[in-house]
Design brief:
The complex is a heterodimer.
Chain A lengths: L2 H32 L19 H8 L3 H32 L5 H11 L4 H15 L5 H26 L2 H9 L4 H12 L1 H17 L2 H6 L8 H6 L11 H31 L6
Helix pairs in contact in A: 1-12, 2-12, 3-6, 3-9, 4-6, 6-9, 7-8, 9-12
Chain B lengths: L3 E10 L2 E11 L4 E5 L6 H9 L6 E6 L2 E2 L10 E4 L11 H11 L4 H14 L15 H14 L4 E5 L7 H17 L4 E6 L2 H7 L2 E6 L2 E6 L1 H6 L4 H6 L6 E4 H6 L4 E4 L4 E3 L6 E10 L3 E7 L6 E6 L9 E6 L5 E3 L9
Parallel strand pairs in B: 3-8, 3-9, 6-7, 7-8
Antiparallel strand pairs in B: 1-2, 1-4, 4-5, 9-10, 11-12, 12-18, 13-17, 14-15, 14-17, 15-16
Helix pairs in contact in B: 2-3, 2-4, 3-4
The chains are: A mainly alpha, B alpha+beta.
Chain lengths: 277, 335
């Protein structure tokens, strides 16, 4: 190997290391901090020096954090299910049924997704009061679904457009209704896209902060991001960094596991349609 | 058994008229082939019969029953698609059983029909496989099997052989011909742009051009008595030789057509003198391309191996009673 080749290889791996450190360091530091106790918290260290699970037990046993965790799971799961159900039926219509104003509708859907959350907050608040779901998980499910749907519908519509039309026609000749075509013919073919969009919807709902802060008021209805932000220490001058970090790690782990489990599906979902296959 | 009647069928997509008034009568149990150049509307006509497209105007009846507004699954048809259109996530068995399952047939009845169809097409060993584990020819046989299981009155084939390679195409063509002999009760409509398929499979051929029926007849009728210049040029391979101008006016016609096998290499009176451009030797015959000064080279078919070198001077003459004469409008002139 020539010197030039070695330099090339070395600089490549150097770049990789820099990027990985840059991306992973905040999370690594959170984990590190979550194992620290008392004054150690304020000592900057880059390697674990002490190890204690006290922060974890504190977060999980005291206060309403376990309840908040359950809320998050419930809200995110129901949002995903609702969004996928609505999106797959909508995308069938948008991809496969010819009707007037279809592309206008698609553009509108895309346009909706560009509104910043803060712009619709007041209106949405009124709507949620009107529906009588203020301070319940349904308020969050409702608003998250609204914000997830444009993306979900778009991805599924593009994906469904790429499914060969003949398969649908064969099913029609076989006597399938649109509902049967969706559930028994298209759904099994769309798993990669469903997993991808579902997971992104889940992450979105899981991490969302602003709506969760606005539409819930009591400890029992809050989701985790808000709960973490509102974690308080013994006095108003104490910020419980250890507990916050432990809670953050607990919240992140399910996402990491989900992504790892579904990663192959995600990749095939994101590249689907790129090549005929 | 089903007799299909089309009365002044029209189909437009927006402003574009694709089918411009087709009248056609397909007899019960007949194998009818739609043939024509791409864009002539043959596939659209088939899809109108299947019910996958709505008829813009006109009447379509199966056995005297108006089917214009009937759903595809209620028409008693089965369709075989060019791209097979198998359900990728279902096994061969499930693919074939899907239609009957939707019709709520009993498990035993489904099993019996699927197995019978599989046997007919020799796909029994593959019943538990997925379509992606099969070759193209096997997939198309499964698609045909799926059609058979539906036990249709009418089979619709939309260019089923186009995606297969040459050898498989011939084999599957034979398969379809056999199917037609076995299922005497079923009417079959077959769309193709390949006139060899049309000639070999059809009881009758319907030549379509630009959304209209150009001619309907048995393969031999079309070959020997084309009713227009278009049909004469479309049916037969190699293409019929056409001559215009002076040569044609000698025969009192605007255009004369002569098939390659009806031209002799001879020195007799009235022969055309020319130069050999190229010889294609197919083993059983040889096609000799001769330039006699007409727009396109004349193709002469010679049996066996006949050796004509390029640039060789040659005299050829048509067999006089095999000449097709056409007037200005492209219509045949009676002798």
């Amino acid at each position: 190997m020539s010197a030039w080749a070695i330099t090339k290889k070395a600089s490549f791996y150097l770049a990789v290391v820099v990027i990985v450190v840059f991306a992973v360091f905040p999370f690594y530091y959170a984990i590190l901090t979550s194992f620290k106790q008392g004054p150690e918290l304020f000592k900057i260290t880059y390697w674990p020096e002490s190890f204690s699970l006290d922060n974890y037990t504190a977060v999980l046993t005291s206060g309403s954090f376990p309840r908040n965790l359950l809320n998050s799971v419930f809200v995110a799961s129901v949002t995903v299910m609702l969004a996928l159900f609505l999106a797959i039926t909508a995308s069938f219509a948008l991809a496969r049924v010819r009707f007037r104003g279809r592309s206008l509708l698609l553009m509108t859907i895309l346009g909706v997704s560009m509104f910043p959350q803060i712009a619709v907050l007041a209106g949405l608040f009124e709507l949620i009061r009107f529906l009588g779901i203020y301070n319940t998980p349904w308020a969050l499910i409702f608003s998250y679904t609204i914000f997830t749907l444009p993306f979900t519908v778009w991805v599924l519509t593009t994906f469904m457009r790429d499914l060969p039309i003949e398969i649908e026609e064969a099913a029609i000749v076989d006597g399938a209704t649109p509902w049967i075509i969706i559930t028994r013919v298209f759904l099994p073919l769309m798993w990669p896209a469903m997993v991808t969009t579902g997971l992104l919807a889940f992450i979105g709902a899981w991490n969302e902060f602003l709506f969760a802060l606005t539409f819930t008021v009591s400890n029992d209805t809050r989701t985790v991001p808000v709960a973490i932000a509102l974690l308080s220490g013994g006095s108003q001058f104490e910020i419980p960094w250890g507990a916050i970090m432990a809670a953050s790690v607990i919240v992140t782990v399910p996402l990491v596991i989900l992504v790892l489990v579904f990663q192959r599906k995600i990749i095939s979902g994101l590249t689907a349609g790129g090549v005929k296959g | 058994m089903a007799r299909i009647e089309l009365k002044n069928i029209k189909k437009s997509f927006g402003m574009v008229d694709v089918i411009k008034g087709v009248d056609l009568d397909v007899r019960s149990g007949e194998f009818m082939v739609f043939v024509g150049p791409s864009g002539c509307g043959k596939s659209t006509l088939l899809r109108l019969m299947a019910g996958l497209e709505d008829i813009t105007s006109g009447e379509m009846t199966f056995d005297g029953v108006l089917v214009n507004a009937l759903a595809p699954s209620k028409r008693g048809i089965a369709m075989v698609f060019q791209s097979y259109a198998l359900y990728p996530h279902m096994t061969v068995y499930e693919n074939m059983a899907f239609g009957m399952q939707l019709a709520k047939s009993s498990k035993e009845a489904i099993k019996e029909r699927v197995e019978k169809a599989a046997e007919m097409l020799q796909i029994t060993p593959y019943l538990q496989r997925l379509p992606k584990q099969l070759s193209g020819g096997q997939r198309q046989r499964v698609a045909i099997g799926r059609a058979i299981v539906r036990d249709p009155k009418i089979f619709l084939f939309d260019e089923p052989l186009s995606n297969l390679d040459a050898a498989l195409r011939v084999a599957t063509r034979l398969e379809i011909a056999k199917l037609h002999h076995q299922m005497t009760g079923s009417t079959m409509i077959y769309v193709t742009h390949d006139q060899v398929e049309a000639m070999t499979l059809a009881d009758r051929i319907c030549v379509l051009r630009d959304g209209l029926v150009e001619q309907v007849g048995t393969p031999l009728e079309l070959y020997e008595h084309p009713q227009s210049l278009f049909v004469a040029g479309f049916i037969g391979s190699p293409k019929m030789n056409f001559l215009n101008g002076e040569i044609a006016s000698k025969f009192g016609a605007n255009t004369v057509g002569i098939r390659s096998e009806h031209i002799e290499v001879t020195d007799r009176d009235g022969s055309w003198k020319g130069k050999v451009i190229h010889s294609e030797n197919l083993g059983s015959d040889t096609y000799v391309y001769v330039d006699i000064g007409s727009d396109e080279p004349i193709i002469v078919r010679q049996e066996g191996n006949s050796l004509h070198r390029p640039d060789e001077a040659i005299s050829i003459a048509p067999i006089l009673d095999k000449i097709h004469r056409f007037d200005k409008a492209g219509k045949p002139m009676r002798h």
